[in-house]
Amino acid sequence: MKDPYETLGVARTASPEEIKKAYLRLAKKLHPDLNPGDTGAEERFKEVSSANDFLSDPERRRRYDAGEIDASGAERRQHRYYRDYAEAAGDRYESQSAYGDFTDDDVLAEILRRRARGARGVDQLYRLEIDFLDAVNGAQKEILLPQGGALQVTIPAGVEEGQVLRLRGKGAPAPGAGDAGDALIEVAIAPHRFFTREGDDIHLDLPVTVTEAVLGAEVKTPTPGGKVFLKVPKQSTTGTVLRLKGRGVLRAGKRGDQLVTLKVMTPTQPEPELEAFLANWKPASPYDPRQDME
């Protein structure tokens, strides 16, 4: 939404009476029923009506002037939770408080009353934080509303950070006989302690022992869908990447992969036998793991 003062063509110091006069002048000129087929006039009328509604609310005008909210009514903060959101501006353009101001024009007043009866309710925005695995696998969640009650939210498998889910008809009720607005759920995903996601692929760093890396082994490996056995080839080393096909994120009927990066771990406690073996071990061929750094 544009700056409401600019939309109405008034100064920031304008009085409520000056704002009302500016709105009436523009509304009579731009109303869609008086400009049939003129989409430009209809869009301008929506902007003018929204600006008038915004500036006619003393508290919202005060907070906007103070820089606490933007022109849509949303808080000016980087991280917000659903209970912190102000009522989001919808796509309505009715202004019930101003209908009586058109009594000098009975035809226009009746047009506006008819519009109000079919006006749509305001969309309401919430923020929902979910677990990493719920985002990958899908889940059912609940949002407790500040005004009481709750919203049941179906999280689809593969949802992404910042994605907005729409619950139709779960927003603010209409001022007249129109449909209720929608609830818009912005998804935030909490990080996982060992999984990360890139696109539809899951990445995992997997510790393995020296014995497993040198001799090869089958080791239990976590995936978002549960543990599976992963075959570690002989002579594996730290940085070896193994692919678990189809163990990634399911989205649009396709599933990504899980990429497992091995990390060879030495014992954290003293191992005299291992130390003695390595002290006397003579490799069959010279090997310098730092030769590329010369």
Automatic annotation (TrEMBL):
For this protein, the record's SMART domains field holds: DnaJ
In what residue span(s) does the J domain sit?
3-68
GO terms under biological process: protein refolding
Q: Name one GO molecular function term.
A: unfolded protein binding
Q: Which domain of life is it from?
A: Bacteria
GO CC terms for this protein?
cytoplasm
Region annotated Disordered sits at 32-59
Family annotation (PANTHER family)? CHAPERONE PROTEIN DNAJ A6, CHLOROPLASTIC, DNAJ HOMOLOG 1, MITOCHONDRIAL-RELATED
- Annotated protein name in UniProt: Molecular chaperone DnaJ
Provide the organism lineage as a comma list.
Bacteria, Pseudomonadati, Pseudomonadota, Alphaproteobacteria, Hyphomicrobiales
